[in-house]
Amino acid sequence: MNHIALKMLMGDKGKYLGIIMGLTFASLIMTQQPAIFVGLMARTYSFISDVALPDIWVMDSKVQFIDDIKPMQETELYRVRGISGVDWAMPMYKGLLKVRLADGAFQTCNVIGLDDATLIGGPATMLTGTLADLRQSDAVIVDIEGAKDKLSKPSPILGQKNIPLQLGDSLELNDHRGIIVGIAKVTRTFQSQPVIYTTYSRAKTYAPRERRLLSFILVKAKPNQDPYQLIARIKATTGLAAYTQQGFKELTYNYFMKNTGIPINFGITISLGFIIGTAIAGQTFYNFTLENIRQFGVLKAMGASNAQLLKMILLQAVLVGSIGYGLGVGLAALFGFAMRHSIMAFKLPWQLLVFSGVGVGFICIIAALISILKVIRLEPAIVFKN
Amino acid sequence: MNSAISCQNIIKTYSTDGQLVTALNGINIEIGLGELMMLVGPSGCGKTTLISIIAGILNQDSGQCLLFGENFQALTNTQQLRFRAHNIGFVFQAYNLLPALNAIENVSVPLIITGTKRAVAEQKAKEILEQMGLSDRMKALPAQLSGGQQQRVAIARALVHSPRLIVCDEPTSALDHKSGHIIMSLLKSIALQHDRALVIVTHDARIFGFADRIAEMDDGHIIKISTTASAEAN
To answer: Which residues of chain A does B54 touch, with a Cβ-Cβ cutoff of 8 Å?
Structure first.
């Protein structure tokens, strides 16, 4: 009966392709839009992911997410260093500063100040120069996207493309000179501002004068020290907030989920995609069954049981569902691959593949169920009606 | 003559637009083994309803219909399906071949329904298609066959599982005289055997001569059953 089911399904190539297209579209929209959503949300904590070395992030207890900087007094660094179980603790400055460009325009940049001695928290991938070059006078490292785009220099020839920043070029940060000694690759952040790395002490000179300028304390636990116990000690001793890298990511992620319209907007888009996908695929598959109802009637008259017909319909649904899902996911992945160098956020974790797989499976089951009900209720006597 | 079908006082009503319409009103009919019975009569007289009940694809409201001694309506659903799959072959006016299957595959369907392996079923289908004179059209799809050829495939499909009852609904009405004659000859020579019965619903007076008996129906009743000259000669 499987052979008959497959032949019936593929007999009319146009209709067969129509069902596949409907499911492909449903699968595509159920994968691509959530992948953009996941990619966008991953950007909210991408900076935390990039700073991989420390076990624990310490910050003011009122901080809600990575860009919600509430500076601490420098003395907090020494208090943390004195807590038992801390292998090392390093300062980090993070703040938005205005950079004056060559054409006189201002660009807000994310300035990161790293511990002068260890440079812990620096970019993982240097494209030009080395991290150690930050120890040179007035040295700064800029991210490649910023260097090519928002921080680029205007071309001397009118109408030509801007010239990307190169080693040796200078920037003006709050009336201070910064000389570019390296170009780094960093993960795009949610705000998509250019990122400028410098030393902690130099960052403090760039930043507006404030009594408190320490944004984060990056802590490494001693070997065999349970990080959660250490976090508890840091909190108890200093009254500051402390999180593991994962914990800080979750704090940031949850803030954006609760306080921005992103989940609702994407939720609506994904829901609409799901409904439209279900409608298209379900309708097409149901129409296919309706158009073949006489054939099912003939099979029923000839003695085919409801179970046999049900298996035929399920096989058809599973086949078109699998092909549509594969094509949709493939197209979504292709979209992500094509957009990998663009500003578009896109992340396709395996959980998302399971989500869209379950979605397409649900659509197929609904479509198959409606069709099955029709076939089960079918009177075989229709075969004698013309 | 042993009885293949014995229907007593069959009543069947339909509800149309809230009104009850009596399609069969106390039908009594006996069809013997080895007999070709034709049901004739004007449209709406109940022929199709009767053939549907005889073939076990429609249940009567009252009365009893024995198929080869079996009270069909008393069987469970599964038993009815199994009985139908093994004992009844269908030939339809519109052929009702599955358009995506070629001739061999179409003919093998009744065997596959009963659980026969595909290779065995297709071998049997080939043999019967050869008997039907369709050796050169076995791989053709229904759309690539003429009306007469399609009906021969449909007859092959009705016979492939060696059923004991073959029901035909207007098997020649869509065919020209010559093709209709060929189809009826095939049905009579191949389908009709001493242990089988053949019931044909028809309007086509050109084929009445092939029948052993003709039951004339009108308004839900059988008004006359006559034996044909050829049957009398036999």
So the answer is: none
Which B residues, 44 through 73, put their C-beta within 8 Å of a C-beta on chain A? Answer: 48, 51-52, 55, 57-58
DSSP three-state, residue A122: coil
The one-letter amino acid code at A320 reads V
Structural domain including A86 reads 73-239
* Distance separating alpha carbons of residues A118 and A226, to the nearest angstrom: 24
**Which of A136, A137, A138, A131 has the alpha carbon at shortest distance from A114?**
A131
Determine whether the interchain pair A305/B78 forms a contact, defined as Cβ–Cβ distance below 8 Å.
Answer: yes
- For B25-73, the pLDDT digits (tens) are 888 888 888 888 888 888 888 888 888 888 888 888 888 888 888 888 8
Q: How far is CA A149 from CA A22, A52, A125, A193, B157, in A?
A: 39, 27, 19, 10, 73
CATH of the domain at B184: 3.40.50.300
Burial class (CB in 10 A: 0-12, 13-18, 19+), B103: buried
- The pLDDT value given to residue A229: 93
A301 Cβ under 8 Å from any chain B Cβ? yes
Distance from CA of B178 to the nearest CA of A (A): 23
Number of domains composing chain B: 1
Q: How many structural domains compose chain A? A: 2
CA B13, B14, B19, B22 torsion: positive or negative?
negative
Which residues from B are below 8 Å from A302, CB to CB? 84-85, 90, 109-110, 113
Query: Cα A189 from chain centroid?
Result: 10
Distance in angstroms (rounded) separating the CA atoms of residues B181 and A123: 90
Q: How far is CA A321 from CA A8, A365, A369, in A?
A: 16, 9, 14
Q: Are A79 and A191 part of one and the same domain?
A: yes
Radius of gyration of chain A (CA): 29
A197 and A151 share a domain? yes
Q: How far is CA A265 from the centre of its chain?
A: 15
| Chain B contact present for A236, CB below 8 A | no
Q: Are residues A93 and A222 in the same domain?
A: yes
Residue A8: which of B85, B98, B113 has the nearest Cβ? B98
pLDDT in tens, A179-197: 999 999 888 877 778 999 9
Evaluate whether residue A303 is within a structural domain: yes
Closest approach of chain A CAs to the CA of B90, in angstroms? Answer: 7
Which of A302, A379, A382 would best serve as a mutation to test chain B binding (most B beta carbons within 10 A)? A302
pLDDT tens readout for residues A64-109:
998 888 999 989 999 999 999 999 999 999 998 989 887 788 889 9
Residue from B13, B5, B1 nearest B54 by CA: B5
Query: Can you point out the beta strands (E) in chain A?
Result: 56-59, 86-100, 106-114, 125-128, 139-143, 170-173, 176-185, 195-199, 216-221, 241-244
Could you report the predicted ipTM of this complex, rounded to two decimals? 0.83
Name residues whose C-beta falls within 8 Å of residue B193's C-beta, 6 or more positions apart in sequence: B34
Going from the C-alpha of A165 to that of each of A83, A132, B39, the distances in angstroms are 43, 19, 95
Rounded to the nearest 10 degrees, how much is the dihedral formed by the CA atoms of A66, A70, A72, A77?
A: -10
Give DSSP secondary structure letters for A10-46.
HHSHHHHHHHHHHHHHHHHHHHHHHHHHHHHHHHHTH
Closest Cα in chain B to A381: B57
- What phi, psi does A305 have (nearest 5°)? -80, 165
Closest CA to B158 of B139, B183, B194: B183
Describe the strand order of the beta sheet including B3-16 as a list of residue ranges.
Answer: B19-32, B3-16, B62-67, B70-71
